Amino acid sequence: MQKSPDRVCSPRADRHTTYGLRKAVQLTGVVVLAMIMFGCSISKSISDSASSPFDSSSDSSKSSSQGKEAAYQSDVRDYTEAYVRSSGDIKAFKAGLTSIASKHGITNWEADQATYTGIGEGLGKAQATDAQLEVYKANIAQGDTAKASAIQKGCDAFRKAKKD
Description:
Number of strands: 0
Shape: globular
Number of helices: 7
Protein backbone atom coordinates (compact mmCIF):
# COMPACT_ATOMS: atom_id res chain seq x y z
CA MET A 1 0.00 0.00 0.00
CA GLN A 2 1.30 3.36 -0.95
CA LYS A 3 1.29 6.10 1.63
CA SER A 4 -0.32 9.31 0.41
CA PRO A 5 1.78 12.42 0.85
CA ASP A 6 0.73 14.98 3.41
CA ARG A 7 -1.35 17.69 1.84
CA VAL A 8 0.04 21.16 1.95
CA CYS A 9 -2.35 24.08 1.55
CA SER A 10 -1.24 26.50 -1.02
CA PRO A 11 -1.68 30.26 -0.54
CA ARG A 12 -4.30 30.10 -3.28
CA ALA A 13 -6.31 27.46 -1.39
CA ASP A 14 -6.06 29.54 1.80
CA ARG A 15 -7.34 32.58 -0.07
CA HIS A 16 -10.35 30.64 -1.39
CA THR A 17 -11.07 29.24 2.07
CA THR A 18 -10.89 32.71 3.62
CA TYR A 19 -13.15 34.11 0.91
CA GLY A 20 -15.66 31.29 1.45
CA LEU A 21 -15.67 31.84 5.20
CA ARG A 22 -16.14 35.57 4.76
CA LYS A 23 -19.09 34.99 2.43
CA ALA A 24 -20.60 32.49 4.88
CA VAL A 25 -20.30 35.00 7.73
CA GLN A 26 -21.89 37.74 5.60
CA LEU A 27 -24.74 35.45 4.57
CA THR A 28 -25.30 34.45 8.19
CA GLY A 29 -25.47 38.12 9.17
CA VAL A 30 -28.06 38.83 6.49
CA VAL A 31 -30.15 35.82 7.56
CA VAL A 32 -29.98 36.85 11.23
CA LEU A 33 -30.89 40.42 10.32
CA ALA A 34 -33.89 39.22 8.31
CA MET A 35 -34.97 36.96 11.17
CA ILE A 36 -34.73 39.85 13.59
CA MET A 37 -36.60 42.16 11.26
CA PHE A 38 -39.41 39.74 10.48
CA GLY A 39 -39.41 38.19 13.96
CA CYS A 40 -40.04 41.61 15.50
CA SER A 41 -42.88 42.23 13.07
CA ILE A 42 -44.45 38.85 13.76
CA SER A 43 -44.21 39.15 17.53
CA LYS A 44 -45.60 42.69 17.35
CA SER A 45 -48.52 41.50 15.21
CA ILE A 46 -49.27 38.66 17.60
CA SER A 47 -49.01 41.00 20.57
CA ASP A 48 -51.25 43.58 18.88
CA SER A 49 -53.90 41.06 17.95
CA ALA A 50 -53.89 39.50 21.41
CA SER A 51 -54.28 42.83 23.18
CA SER A 52 -56.59 44.54 20.69
CA PRO A 53 -59.88 43.46 22.36
CA PHE A 54 -58.68 45.19 25.52
CA ASP A 55 -57.64 48.49 24.00
CA SER A 56 -59.04 51.51 25.77
CA SER A 57 -61.35 53.92 24.00
CA SER A 58 -58.60 56.52 23.87
CA ASP A 59 -56.39 54.08 21.95
CA SER A 60 -59.12 53.40 19.45
CA SER A 61 -59.44 57.11 18.71
CA LYS A 62 -55.96 57.24 17.17
CA SER A 63 -56.03 57.76 13.46
CA SER A 64 -54.95 54.81 11.38
CA SER A 65 -52.30 56.91 9.64
CA GLN A 66 -50.61 57.70 12.96
CA GLY A 67 -50.64 54.02 13.86
CA LYS A 68 -49.17 53.08 10.50
CA GLU A 69 -46.47 55.73 10.83
CA ALA A 70 -45.59 54.54 14.34
CA ALA A 71 -45.38 50.92 13.13
CA TYR A 72 -43.16 51.97 10.23
CA GLN A 73 -40.91 54.06 12.48
CA SER A 74 -40.65 51.14 14.93
CA ASP A 75 -39.61 48.76 12.15
CA VAL A 76 -37.01 51.25 10.90
CA ARG A 77 -35.71 51.62 14.48
CA ASP A 78 -35.38 47.85 14.97
CA TYR A 79 -33.79 47.35 11.54
CA THR A 80 -31.29 50.16 12.16
CA GLU A 81 -30.34 48.75 15.55
CA ALA A 82 -29.71 45.29 14.10
CA TYR A 83 -27.83 46.74 11.14
CA VAL A 84 -25.57 48.91 13.29
CA ARG A 85 -24.71 45.93 15.47
CA SER A 86 -23.90 43.73 12.46
CA SER A 87 -22.19 46.54 10.53
CA GLY A 88 -22.49 46.59 6.80
CA ASP A 89 -22.34 48.90 3.87
CA ILE A 90 -24.67 51.87 3.49
CA LYS A 91 -25.98 50.70 0.10
CA ALA A 92 -27.34 47.49 1.65
CA PHE A 93 -28.76 49.49 4.56
CA LYS A 94 -30.66 51.72 2.15
CA ALA A 95 -31.94 48.67 0.25
CA GLY A 96 -33.30 47.33 3.56
CA LEU A 97 -35.02 50.65 4.23
CA THR A 98 -36.63 50.46 0.80
CA SER A 99 -37.93 46.99 1.61
CA ILE A 100 -39.37 48.08 4.98
CA ALA A 101 -40.99 51.16 3.43
CA SER A 102 -42.54 49.04 0.70
CA LYS A 103 -43.95 46.65 3.30
CA HIS A 104 -45.66 49.65 4.90
CA GLY A 105 -46.93 51.07 1.61
CA ILE A 106 -44.38 53.89 1.53
CA THR A 107 -43.01 54.49 -1.95
CA ASN A 108 -40.41 57.16 -1.12
CA TRP A 109 -38.80 56.57 2.28
CA GLU A 110 -36.29 59.33 1.58
CA ALA A 111 -39.13 61.89 1.80
CA ASP A 112 -40.68 60.43 4.96
CA GLN A 113 -39.64 62.11 8.22
CA ALA A 114 -40.48 58.96 10.23
CA THR A 115 -37.63 57.20 8.43
CA TYR A 116 -35.02 59.56 9.83
CA THR A 117 -36.49 59.62 13.32
CA GLY A 118 -36.59 55.81 13.27
CA ILE A 119 -32.96 55.64 12.11
CA GLY A 120 -31.95 57.95 14.96
CA GLU A 121 -33.89 55.88 17.49
CA GLY A 122 -32.26 52.73 16.14
CA LEU A 123 -28.82 54.29 16.52
CA GLY A 124 -29.69 55.21 20.10
CA LYS A 125 -31.05 51.73 20.79
CA ALA A 126 -27.87 50.17 19.37
CA GLN A 127 -25.85 52.46 21.64
CA ALA A 128 -24.02 53.84 18.63
CA THR A 129 -21.04 56.04 19.35
CA ASP A 130 -21.16 59.71 18.44
CA ALA A 131 -18.79 58.92 15.56
CA GLN A 132 -21.17 56.25 14.21
CA LEU A 133 -24.08 58.68 14.58
CA GLU A 134 -22.21 61.29 12.53
CA VAL A 135 -21.36 58.75 9.81
CA TYR A 136 -24.99 57.68 9.48
CA LYS A 137 -26.17 61.30 9.45
CA ALA A 138 -23.69 62.17 6.71
CA ASN A 139 -24.44 59.10 4.58
CA ILE A 140 -28.21 59.07 4.99
CA ALA A 141 -29.07 62.78 5.24
CA GLN A 142 -26.55 63.71 2.53
CA GLY A 143 -26.32 67.33 3.59
CA ASP A 144 -30.03 67.81 4.28
CA THR A 145 -30.08 69.51 7.69
CA ALA A 146 -33.73 68.61 8.39
CA LYS A 147 -33.00 64.91 7.85
CA ALA A 148 -29.79 65.06 9.90
CA SER A 149 -31.69 66.87 12.65
CA ALA A 150 -34.41 64.19 12.70
CA ILE A 151 -31.76 61.47 13.03
CA GLN A 152 -30.09 63.39 15.86
CA LYS A 153 -33.40 64.05 17.65
CA GLY A 154 -34.44 60.40 17.36
CA CYS A 155 -31.13 59.27 18.81
CA ASP A 156 -31.20 61.85 21.60
CA ALA A 157 -34.80 60.99 22.50
CA PHE A 158 -34.00 57.27 22.72
CA ARG A 159 -30.85 57.89 24.77
CA LYS A 160 -32.77 60.19 27.13
CA ALA A 161 -35.66 57.71 27.52
CA LYS A 162 -33.16 54.94 28.30
CA LYS A 163 -31.56 57.05 31.06
CA ASP A 164 -34.93 57.81 32.67
